């Protein structure tokens, strides 16, 4: 699969901004593009022919990009479509749900050609390995891995699970928060090769879970991959001190997750 094989839906009410986005996509070799000014028509088109990527702005005439991606993730037929937001919006209440829903890219307005290229490349690799179930070598390396995924967002867990399954990982246990994860870790029949956890969670957050694993569990050396949208440097430093193996920012890059899993689990 190449970029010119992808079908992309662009949703942008501004004629000027929509033209810029489409031109940039074509610069990167994408030829099959359908354009919309509002979400309703785009959703109808998605149900008729499933696109590979939806590129949307935040503020649409009939709903926000946050509401759009939420509707997509709740629809089984649209749930796995990759989503890229292009917006000048910086408010947490708008962006955090999109990060949680598993957007593969959040680009600013204006965005650079390099920023778009990174998002498209990650999307292409994600889609290619979905089709091929990862390379044979990757599948052989990962087929026996047991991974614990911890996140209070069901949509985030599903997105992470899909990434892991694309890499050939089949033994995946989900926990809806840190407290549930502690219970899974206390079950002596569960031996995990990797823990992938969110940071902001109720009951027991990612930092507290990491401290429990390192200091109070029977698997103190298991690699821990922390996923977070946290920007506070003090909080990030505290996460590092707690003993995480690596931190990756939301929105998740498929290429970055793949690289980190290879480094954390397979390299000695």
Name its key features.
alpha/beta, Rossmann fold, 2 domains, 10 strands, 268 residues, 47% helix, five-stranded parallel sheet
The total of beta strands comes to: 10
| Annotation field: number of helices | 11
Shape: globular
The overall average pLDDT, rounded, is 88
Characterization of this structure:
This protein folds into two domains: 3-132, Rossmann fold (3-Layer(aba) Sandwich); 136-266, 3-Layer(aba) Sandwich (Rossmann fold). The chain is built from eleven helices and ten strands. The chain has helices spanning 15-27, 39-48, 65-74, 92-100, 113-132, 136-142, 154-166, 178-186, 206-216, 233-242, 254-266, and strands at residues 7-11, 32-36, 53-56, 82-86, 105-107, 146-150, 171-175, 194-198, 224-228, 246-249. The strands form two sheets. A five-stranded parallel beta sheet has the order 2-1-3-4-5, sandwiched between helices. Helix 5 packs across helix 7 and helix 8 runs parallel beside helix 9. The longest helix has 20 residues, at 113-132. It is globular, with a radius of gyration of 19 Å. The relative contact order is 0.10.
How is the secondary structure organized here?
Blueprint lengths: L6 E5 L3 H13 L4 E5 L2 H10 L4 E4 L8 H10 L7 E5 L5 H9 L4 E3 L5 H20 L3 H7 L3 E5 L3 H13 L4 E5 L2 H9 L7 E5 L7 H11 L7 E5 L4 H10 L3 E4 L4 H13 L2
Parallel strand pairs: 1-2, 1-3, 3-4, 4-5, 6-7, 6-8, 8-9, 9-10
């Amino acid at each position: 699969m190449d970029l010119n094989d992808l079908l992309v839906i662009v949703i942008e009410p501004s004629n000027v901004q929509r033209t810029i986005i489409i031109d940039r996509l074509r610069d990167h070799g994408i030829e099959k593009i359908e354009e919309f000014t509002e979400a309703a028509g785009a959703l109808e088109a998605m149900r008729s022919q499933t696109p590979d990527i939806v590129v949307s702005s935040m503020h649409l005439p009939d709903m926000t990009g946050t509401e759009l991606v939420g509707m997509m993730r709740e629809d089984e037929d649209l749930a796995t479509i990759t989503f890229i937001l292009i917006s000048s919006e910086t408010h947490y209440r708008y962006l955090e749900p999109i990060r949680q829903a598993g957007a593969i890219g959040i680009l600013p307005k204006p965005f650079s050609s390099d920023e778009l290229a990174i998002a498209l490349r990650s999307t292409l690799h994600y889609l290619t390995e979905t089709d091929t179930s990862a390379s044979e070598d990757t599948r052989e390396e990962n087929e026996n891995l047991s991974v614990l995924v911890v996140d209070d967002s069901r949509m985030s867990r599903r997105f992470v699970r899909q990434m892991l399954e694309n890499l050939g990982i089949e033994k995946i246990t989900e926990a809806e928060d840190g407290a549930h994860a502690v219970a899974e870790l206390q079950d002596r029949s569960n031996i995990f090769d990797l823990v992938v956890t969110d940071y902001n969670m109720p009951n027991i957050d990612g930092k507290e879970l990491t401290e429990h694993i390192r200091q109070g569990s029977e698997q103190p050396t298991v690699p821990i991959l922390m996923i977070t949208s946290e920007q506070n440097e003090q909080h990030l430093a505290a996460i590092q001190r707690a003993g995480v193996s690596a931190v990756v920012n939301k929105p998740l890059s498929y290429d970055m997750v793949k690289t980190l899993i290879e480094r954390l689990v397979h390299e000695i």
